Amino acid sequence: MIFLLKRGLIFISLFAAITTLPLAAVSKKSKPIIDSSIGKVVLISRSDACSCTTKKIEEVKASIESSVLNLTKKGQRIDFEVIDYSVDTEKTGQLMKGYGLDFIPCVLLLGNDGKVYYKISYYFENKEYLKALDDLVHDSNNRSKK
Predict the structure, then answer these.
(1) Domain check: are 107 and 85 in the same one?
(2) Given 3-state DSSP classes, what are the helix, strand and coil percentages for the chain, each rounded to the nearest 5?
(3) Under a CB-based contact definition with an 8 Å cutoff, are residues 112 and 136 in contact?
(4) What contacts 96, CB < 8 A, 6 or more positions away?
(5) How many structural domains are present in the chain?
(6) How far is the C-alpha of 109 from the C-alpha of 32, rounded, in Å?
């Protein structure tokens, strides 16, 4: 019994060490984060959606999170907000209506000046999103040089 308890504690300690090690390594290698954000990505999701839509939402979210992380590594910051239609119907409804979005998941990529760089309902294309994100970064860099 004591052997199993010690074995469990060792496993938990090793697991904690392994899972936190990559985070520590990334944070030491990362460039400093710029204080101001270059824009915002909004993902409208729905927690009570069918399984196919839930799968699509998770794929879109993973793509956006990856792009946000890549920007952070380059020393730039973009805000990322996930809004659940099931929880905040009023806010999501206003956004969807205001930007002409019909189906969930919805993605908006907005510059600090309010310019819409990318908007899509359901049919998220990572290639198009990344192109729009590059355009936002380019525009932001040009504004900061002036």
Answers:
(1) yes
(2) 55, 15, 25
(3) no
(4) 44, 102, 106, 121
(5) 2
(6) 23
